[in-house]
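User: Design a sequence. Structure:
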């Protein structure tokens, strides 16, 4: 199981939000590229970047910062937040992004996902953010009537090769991941699932690693790293071997 450190961008800075609420923000760095290099130096094989401004506004906002991060790294960067159409996807790739994550658009325009998968294949990831088992959209501000598992199966049918599943109620809380929800999702799918939200300690990672047998191939870690609960180097050594 791969440990994937996260960088959330807001106003060009590296931040973390509590349960996705933008008025509950902690700024960790004014230089996101420097943070990205830190995670790379500690052994990260992939970086997860979210343009929070883009997620809230529905368009790409932090393009220059994203390009700076991508050009600094020799590991793949996956980007989410505000990616709502094919033009934004194309632009993200020109910035040096390896994979893009679509969430709101996947819910509102599933036909576009099929088109993008046909064009870009495995470079298209669908991010499913859920609250109480139901999909949330537009920077987690709006809920929907879509069950997360049903939607994931629909995306798998559309040809998507990888899904990121975030439990909003745990994100940024350090309360531990929602293992039951992650297992339910992983067992339902035949494609790899990346877990996100709530990791607080190495023991949480060990519990998630058990789910590797049912399809959880990676975990995104943010707040725990920034809060110093453990080092990325130690996590990779313990979990990835």
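Assistant: Done.
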């Amino acid at each position: 199981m791969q440990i994937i450190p996260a960088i959330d961008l807001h106003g060009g800075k590296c931040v973390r939000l509590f349960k996705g609420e933008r008025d509950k923000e902690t700024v960790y760095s004014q230089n996101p590229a420097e943070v990205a290099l830190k995670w790379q130096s500690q052994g990260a094989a992939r970086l997860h970047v979210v343009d929070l401004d883009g997620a809230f506004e529905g368009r790409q906002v932090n393009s220059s910062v994203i390009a700076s991060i991508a050009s600094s790294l020799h590991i793949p960067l996956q980007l989410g937040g505000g990616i709502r159409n094919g033009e934004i996807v194309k632009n993200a790739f020109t910035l040096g992004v390896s994979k893009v994550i679509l969430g709101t658009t996947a819910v509102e325009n599933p036909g576009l996902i099929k088109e993008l998968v046909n064009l870009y294949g495995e470079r298209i990831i669908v991010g499913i953010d859920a609250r109480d088992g139901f999909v949330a959209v537009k920077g987690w501000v709006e809920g929907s009537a879509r069950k997360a598992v049903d939607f994931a199966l629909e995306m798998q049918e559309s040809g998507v090769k990888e899904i990121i599943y975030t439990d909003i109620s745990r994100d940024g809380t350090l309360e531990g991941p929602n293992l039951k929800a992650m297992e339910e999702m992983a067992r339902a799918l035949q494609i790899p699932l990346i877990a996100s939200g709530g990791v607080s300690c190495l023991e949480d990672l060990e519990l998630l690693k058990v789910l590797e047998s049912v399809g959880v191939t990676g975990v995104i870690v943010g707040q725990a790293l920034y809060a110093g609960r453990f080092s990325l180097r130690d996590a990779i050594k313990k979990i990835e071997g």
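The chain has eleven helices and twelve strands. Residues 2-240 form a domain with the TIM Barrel fold (CATH 3.20.20.70).
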